[in-house]
Specification:
Structural class: mainly alpha
Strand order of the largest sheet: 2-3-4-1-5-6-7-8
Largest sheet: 8 strands, mixed
CATH architecture of one domain: 3-Layer(aba) Sandwich
Shape: globular
Helix content: 55-70%
Length: 823
């Protein structure tokens, strides 16, 4: 037999380890006495039949050379038929050659519980078990617990399991968790699961895990789930996961609704009772983020992570890569554009067809959704790109309302959402996006009936009130005067009937509009508000307009960090921002403060040259600087001294989770004032919320760190008041925020972030947020950025009021726990 050099080297290494353990020092031998894992393993080994004392002593040293995981496996082997000294040596060699992870050790242990395993089979199984991925290993462990399976039969499933991705393996785990399932049914189910796509697999897992699931039911369900379209499967998965779902209900929903054509689903929806509609619409809303992500991403050609692929990169792609991207589109769109794509003249032609087909798939995705599903997505308005909202979903829903509900929005709302879960969010989103008139009735009476539904939905909790406040002006502007008066009257009644906290928030909303926008109110409206304030009291809104600028300027420095994503949008934003700063007299330099990776001397030298080139000729110098920042993980600052204050705007290109955690930690602990998140809204979690949550969870940032400074967040991406609320809470209320509830615009973000610090540097520390708004009003001229929420806006004031109340309540609880002070 010819032995390869690689195998010869491995064999020599194993022999060396065994010889080394034979001659190991007495000091190491003494150390084993304190090794509990070694002790347990050795106690089992010395009971192996037929060992001589010399073989026992040899084994004692050999076991010491095994790592913890290998010791655990060898302990199982010591109990198997056929184990002796020669097989032990063979096992030690195999365990050193095939290093198992902890999860793979658990797989071996589960498999070793099956009767009929001898030492030869156990040693032979090690390479197969080593091939198991984490999720495939979990599936294998469950499979090993099934009744009446043989060891070899279990091992034969490994090649199948390792070919499945994580979502399919989790579906397998759900299948194997069904009570009473046998090996035959399990294998049949796994064969179907292997043919499921991602969302179908997730639906299968959720279905299998519904309490009371039976083998027969899951066996019948899997072929039906395989027929579901991706978005339909995702919605099914969300519904199956609801707390009150039973196996009978899950089967009903699958067969009566999800596994039927869209036309039948629309008809079926009308036959459901109010509770069934509430469950389904709630599932559409809860699962909306995934479908919103998909529709938003179809605004251009993107990769599986949502990164927009530049035209340059597409043109440099191979024909095979372009073909793969085309095949990611829906079957309907592939059929429609397939001929043009395959017969396109050159690379440029294929890219053009791919872009056109991607845009068509965006519309096709909406057309394949049920009307109630579109309604639930529109209720999350600020999460959708303006183009997704205005140009895709609203026109499709309008067609549904016209064709099936007599073009009557009120009829549709009562039919689609009898529980009134989302009416307020839906209506204010339409108002905010400028599409309310597309669906809203002209009849004042019908307007009032819809506004009654809005009020019931909008004032159910603090979060819904704040969301309502963010778009209240949009609503007032489009309502008929009589409907406007009706809404204000309804809010008065709601405040009088609600809790003290809710009453205060509603009163503050109306007080704010009475003081700031009286032109939107009729005399009758103003009288209603004045009466409400007389009953509930007014609030000094001015106290919530104070700024932290005095603290900021104490060290003579104002520092910001802007994070750009490495896609087309981030590229464009970086270039426009850098050009504006350079034109404004800012000088670029390597930012030591926000460079969180070590740079070699050669890289530093190259960075110096790139920065100099960018300053000398921004048009040609900035693009290579951006690419270098992305590749080498460093930040560049743009610095200027104004009125004795050093202003420093650092820019960083997002790279990965690890670097972003270090960057966020540096931002908080260094005392920087502003964090600007640039790029698409769906990167907000990677850039801010995920790293911040992990830093707090790991104890690297404390509450004191977050409260040490009142910071400023500039959210330049398409945003939403939900993100605004979440970030305010994550920073424990110690943050002021510029955000947009519509589309983020570089023509707003660039000058605002630049001018913001300049206004702070030029003016006294006592200026208010209202003063700041006046100083920067030129940026928002001609209606630009009217969807932006600036510090001092109504939602900002409401957040500060809630933070005050929550702090006071917490202090009261602490005071009660401590008890009265005793003299």
């Amino acid at each position: 037999m010819i032995i390869s050099p690689r195998r010869r080297t491995a064999a020599a290494a194993v022999a060396f380890v065994l010889v080394l353990t034979w001659v190991i020092s007495g000091e190491a031998s003494h150390g084993r006495q304190d090794d509990a894992s070694w002790k347990r393993t050795f106690e089992l080994y010395r009971d192996v039949p037929g060992l001589t004392q010399q073989e026992i002593d040899f084994g004692a040293e050999a076991i010491l050379g095994l790592d913890y995981n290998a010791k655990r496996v060898f302990r199982r082997m010591c109990l198997m038929e056929g184990i002796d000294f020669d097989k032990s040596r063979e096992a030690w060699s195999a365990l050193i050659s095939h290093v198992l992870s902890y999860e793979q050790v658990l797989c071996f242990e589960a498999w070793s519980e099956i009767s009929g395993i001898d030492i030869d089979l156990a040693i032979a199984a090690l390479p197969q078990i080593q091939s198991l991925t984490y999720e495939a290993g979990k599936s294998f462990r469950q499979y090993c617990t099934l009744p009446r399976i043989s060891p070899k039969h279990a091992l034969n499933t490994i090649p199948l399991l390792i070919r499945l991705d994580d979502s399919r393996n989790r579906a397998v785990q759900g299948l194997l968790a069904v009570e009473g399932i046998g090996a035959g049914d399990a294998l049949n189910g796994i064969e179907v699961i292997a043919r499921l796509n991602g969302h179908q697999a997730r639906a299968a897992e959720a279905f299998a895990r519904v309490p009371g699931m039976t083998t027969a039911m899951i066996g019948d369900a899997l072929p039906l789930i395989r027929q579901l379209e991706q978005d339909n499967a995702w919605n099914a998965r969300t519904l199956f996961q609801t707390a009150e779902m039973t196996s009978g209900d899950a089967w009903y929903w699958l067969t009566a609704y999800f596994a039927t054509p869209l036309e039948i689903r629309e008809q079926q929806f009308r036959t459901f009772n109010d509770r069934q509609k509430e469950l389904l619409v709630g599932a559409f809303y809860a699962g909306g983020e995934e479908i919103i992500w998909k529709i938003n991403n179809l605004h251009g050609v993107t990769d599986r992570f949502g990164f927009e692929i530049s035209s340059h990169d597409l043109l440099n792609s191979s024909d095979k890569q372009l073909q793969e991207r085309f095949e990611m589109l829906s079957p309907q769109v592939q059929s429609r554009f397939g001929s043009n794509f395959h017969h396109a003249g050159g690379k440029g032609g294929k890219v053009a067809v791919l872009k056109k087909a991607t845009a068509a798939d965006r519309v096709e995705t909406a057309r394949r959704l049920a009307a109630a599903n579109i309604y639930a997505l529109l209720a999350q308005g600020s999460e959708l790109y303006d183009s997704s909202f205005r140009n895709i979903l609203v026109p499709v829903l309008k067609n549904h309302v016209r064709a099936s509900f007599g073009d009557n929005l009120l009829t549709f709302l009562k039919e689609a959402d009898p529980a009134n879960q989302l009416v307020s969010n839906f209506i204010v989103s339409l108002a905010q996006k400028g599409k309310l008139t597309t669906l809203f009735p002209d009849n004042p009476g019908e307007q009032q009936r819809i506004l009654d539904l809005v009020a019931e939905s909008a004032f159910k909790d603090e979060d819904s009130i704040i969301l309502f406040s963010a778009t209240f002006m949009h609503l007032l502007e489009v309502l008929q005067p009589s409907a406007r008066t009706f809404l204000i009257s309804r809010m008065n009644r709601q405040a009088d009937a609600g809790t003290a906290a809710y009453a205060r928030l509603i009163a503050v909303i109306l007080q704010y509009y009475l003081e700031e926008f009286p032109h939107l109110l009729l005399t009758e409206d103003a009288s209603l508000i004045t009466g409400l304030l007389a009953r509930h009291g007014t609030v000094d809104l001015g106290k919530y307009l104070a700024t932290p600028f005095g603290q900021w300027k104490e060290d003579g420095r104002l520092s910001s960090l802007s994070v750009f994503h490495p896609d087309d949008d981030g590229w464009d934003s970086f270039l426009s921002n850098a050009r504006m700063l350079l034109a404004g007299g800012y000088r670029p330099a390597l930012s030591e403060q926000f460079t969180v990776s070590s740079l070699s001397d050669s890289v530093r030298e190259g960075v110096t040259g790139l920065i100099a080139a960018a300053q000398a000729d921004p048009a040609s110098g900035l693009p290579p600087l951006f690419r270098s920042m992305r590749a080498n993980h460093y930040a560049v600052s743009f610095d200027r001294v104004l009125n004795g204050i050093m202003i420093s705007h650092a820019a960083y290109v997002f790279s990965d989770e690890h670097h972003q955690e270090k960057l966020m930690e540096r931002f908080v602990l260094s005392g920087a004032e502003m964090f600007a998140q640039r790029g698409h809204s769906y990167w907000r979690s990677e850039q801010i919320t995920d790293p911040l949550e992990k830093l707090v969870r790991d104890g690297r940032l404390s509450e004191n760190d977050l409260r040490a400074k009142q910071r400023f967040l500039s959210l330049g991406s398409c945003g939403g008041v939900k993100a605004y609320t979440r970030l305010s809470r994550m920073f424990l209320g110690h943050v002021d925020i510029l955000a947009t509830i519509g589309t983020g615009l570089a023509v707003i973000n660039d000058p605002y972030n630049k001018s913001f610090f300049e206004v702070v540097a030029r003016n006294p520390a006592a200026i208010t947020w209202k003063d700041m708004e006046g100083e920067l009003a030129h940026i928002f001229q001609e209606g630009h950025g009217r969807d932006y929420l600036q510090p001092g806006s109504l939602p900002a004031i409401l957040h500060k009021i809630l933070d005050e109340e929550q702090t006071a309540a917490a202090e009261e609880i602490i005071g009660s726990a401590i008890g009265p002070e005793r003299g």
